[in-house]
Amino acid sequence: MMNAEMMHPGDKVIRVGVCVVFFFLGMVLLTIRPLRPGTEVCFDPVRRELRVLRTNSQGAVRTILRRRYDSLGAARLTSATVQLFEADGSLLFEVPLSTVQSRSLLRDQLSGSVPLLT
Fold first, then answer.
1. How far does Cα 48 stand from its chain's mean position?
2. 25-78 confidence digits (pLDDT tens)
3. What CA–CA distances, in Å, run from 12 to 17, 18, 71, 76?
4. Residues in contact with 45: Cβ distance below 8 Å, sequence separation at least 6, in sequence order
5. What is the pTM of this model?
6. Which of 11, 13, 76, 103 is the right S-S partner for 117, CB 3.0 to 4.6 Å?
């Protein structure tokens, strides 16, 4: 913010030091991993099963749910989500869909094994 002619030689050292500190602070912020565990839902077309994986704070991945498609009660595909239901009609969980292509691929995978609700 100051013109180079107006700066004293000591001010230039402070300015360089502040730039270095902000550089390293930015690098640290870029490399920090989230501390809360993440959950991932995988639809396996080969095994025709659904897996829910959870990553803990140490980075280890665990399978917390594994279900075959034919053991699910029903599925409802909307434009932005897929809802999976138990055989008794209760909601198992709801997963957001990122693209229209993923919706159509998932519909193709589930058709024939899971009743699709409209």
1. 22
2. 998 888 876 555 678 889 998 999 999 998 887 778 899 999 999 899 999 998
3. 9, 10, 69, 63
4. 109
5. 0.62
6. 76
